[in-house]
Structure to design on (315 residues):
């Protein structure tokens, strides 16, 4: 392989009405994935993905399996068009939050139906872990991590608040109790940080308030049939590569309450010689994070049928 390639899979926030539609129209391999996810969930999730309403698609219980389905359909097209598996095409795989399930499926650790059902459970359990309105998340932009640590320490006087997503240089997300997040936003503004923005999410993901969801996922994942990965998976909570099913399972549980270390993941991949970052699925959020983090990366997206030729040119 001339270039080291990462297949990266998006997380919540990348969903959009119409996602996966052009792949479904153009490729039988994509249609088969959408049908498999529908069958696994016992409902027509693909119809919601195509037609909305957007508010329903945005619900955590729908957004998580929908983004997974879109990523897996795109991957299925790549595999059918090249005649190669993800482990033959990519040096590593990684996914942002729920995208880690897509990465594990790409690596052959989980099958599509099981992953879809686990993500439905994950969405439901994350939503029910904290009563509506009691948790929140905020992005704090263009601030040093040391300053954010100060903000978190100050705001913790008002309740739980943790660094939830270290996405890219100057893009950190905090999560916790609603009052503590409001306190953090004020503390940021007092320090001259102009962009501290509450996010339109329905629960405080990746913080200790998600412990009930972590317990639910631990029970479900203990029963799940998981294999060792055929291609190394960079995990959110360690920012390191892993192939063993036992560790991958543990990391999925820890991830529910733990920090998404995406900036560190990208830097570790680049240090290992990865040059090509191919985002597979809906949107370009992860591509934007690569652009903010790494200067010389080759960034490619595979979202719609029109993107295929560009992706194949880089494989």
């Amino acid at each position: 392989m001339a270039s080291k390639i990462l297949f990266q899979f998006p997380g919540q926030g990348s969903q959009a009405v119409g996602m996966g539609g052009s792949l479904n129209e153009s490729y039988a391999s994509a249609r088969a994935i959408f049908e498999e996810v529908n069958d696994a969930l016992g409902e027509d999730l693909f119809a919601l993905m195509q037609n909305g309403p957007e508010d329903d698609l945005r619900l955590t219980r729908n957004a998580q399996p929908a983004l997974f389905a879109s990523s897996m359909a795109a991957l299925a097209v790549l595999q059918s068009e090249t005649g190669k598996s993800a482990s033959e095409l990519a040096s590593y795989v990684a996914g942002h939050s729920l995208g880690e399930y897509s990465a594990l499926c790409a690596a052959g650790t989980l099958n599509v139906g099981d992953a879809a059902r686990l993500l439905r459970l994950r969405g439901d359990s994350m939503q029910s872990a904290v009563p509506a309105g009691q948790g929140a998340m905020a992005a704090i932009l263009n601030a040093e991590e040391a300053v954010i640590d100060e903000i978190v320490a100050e705001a913790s006087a008002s309740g739980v608040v943790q660094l939830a997503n270290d996405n890219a240089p100057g893009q950190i997300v905090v999560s916790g109790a609603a009052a503590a997040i409001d306190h953090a936003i004020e503390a940021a503004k007092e320090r001259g940080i102009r962009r501290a923005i509450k996010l339109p999410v329905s629960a405080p993901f990746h913080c200790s308030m998600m412990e009930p969801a972590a317990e639910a996922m631990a029970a479900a994942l203990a029963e799940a049939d998981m294999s060792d990965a055929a291609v190394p998976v960079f995990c959110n909570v360690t920012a390191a590569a892993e192939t063993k099913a036992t560790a991958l399972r543990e990391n999925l549980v820890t991830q529910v309450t733990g920090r998404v270390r995406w900036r560190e993941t990208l830097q570790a991949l680049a240090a290992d010689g990865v040059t090509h970052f191919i985002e597979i699925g809906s949107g370009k959020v992860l591509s934007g994070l690569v652009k903010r983090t790494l200067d010389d990366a080759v960034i490619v997206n595979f979202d719609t049928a029109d993107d295929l030729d560009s992706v194949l040119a880089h494989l």
